[in-house]
Automatic annotation (TrEMBL):
D-isomer specific 2-hydroxyacid dehydrogenase catalytic domain mapped to chain residues: 24-307
SUPFAM superfamilies linked: Formate/glycerate dehydrogenase catalytic domain-like, NAD(P)-binding Rossmann-fold domains
CDD domains: HPPR (cd12156)
Family the entry assigns: Belongs to the D-isomer specific 2-hydroxyacid dehydrogenase family.
Keyword DNA damage (UniProt): no
GO cellular component: cytosol
Record keywords, A-Z: NAD, NADP, Oxidoreductase
Identification of the protein by name: Hydroxyacid dehydrogenase
Gene3D superfamilies, alphabetized: NAD(P)-binding Rossmann-like Domain
InterPro entries: D-isomer_2-hydroxyacid_DH, D-isomer_2_OHA_DH_cat_dom, D-isomer_DH_CS1, D-isomer_DH_NAD-bd, NAD(P)-bd_dom_sf
Domain D-isomer specific 2-hydroxyacid dehydrogenase NAD-binding: 106-276
Short name of one Pfam family: 2-Hacid_dh
Species in which this protein is naturally found: Amycolatopsis albispora
Amino acid sequence: MTVLQLCPLLPSLETALTTHHRTVRLFEQPEGYLAEHGGEFRAAITSARVGVPDEVMDALPHLEAIVHFGVGYETTDVGRARARGIDVSNTPDVLTDCVADLAVGGLIDVMRRLTAADRFVRRGDWTTTAYPLATKVSGKKIGILGLGRIGRAIATRLSGFGVELSYHSRRPVDGVPYRYVDSPVALAAEADALVVAVAGGENTRGLVSADVLTALGPDGFLVNVSRGSVVDEPALVVALTDGKLAGAALDVFAEEPEVPAPLLDLDSVLLLPHIASATTETREAMGELAFRNLHHFLTEGSLLTPVP
């Protein structure tokens, strides 16, 4: 059975694909390839960033499964897929620890101004002046927007800093010791820092609005390890450049790899190239799970980690 690969993937995953299944790399095929060959594919594998565009899905009349390398799947219209009886999977859990680690690291960095201090030393400024004071992390009020797997892992790590944790999700989460707040604005209003860990997609687009940023205020910090679409990026740029927000640690952006130019010169902002899950261990685990999903579907007829 033939597998359609929509984009370059982890080398070890590509090796497993070509070893065990006939795999066609769509990105290496001539224009119009699917018009002639689209009926040959029962399964497609892609990255969370690329997904399966509607026009590709429509060109695959016998498609039965879409496997994503990554926890996100908002780049694929899951409703459209399900309406056609196409199963969809992602790679949850295996990247939770690394994303949570980076979220905490980003929070510490931007509040203590670590990378800004590194630049200060490298420029030679320490020889002429003292570095300005930063903000303490321990004991602060931290709001977590999205208390799913990653949000809970972030909360667990931050608990060791003696912070006061609260959260907002679509609904209260059973069995957690953190206080639920009923809106993102209310959560931001009482937080010293807001950590964003919700899923991407249309349901959360612009969830961190100008009102949320205003509520967070000029002494507040934002950390985003979710998706760039979750934050009103123009409003965030204004808040940071006008001093209406103390700082931000951003691993994701609205139009990656493009980063808003006004942010590039701000020492109050940590800019990262979407690396929350980018460790060798985690990416290999993601690749292994993506392959197991695909292989299990082609041999047993079902996916191991279908999207909820």
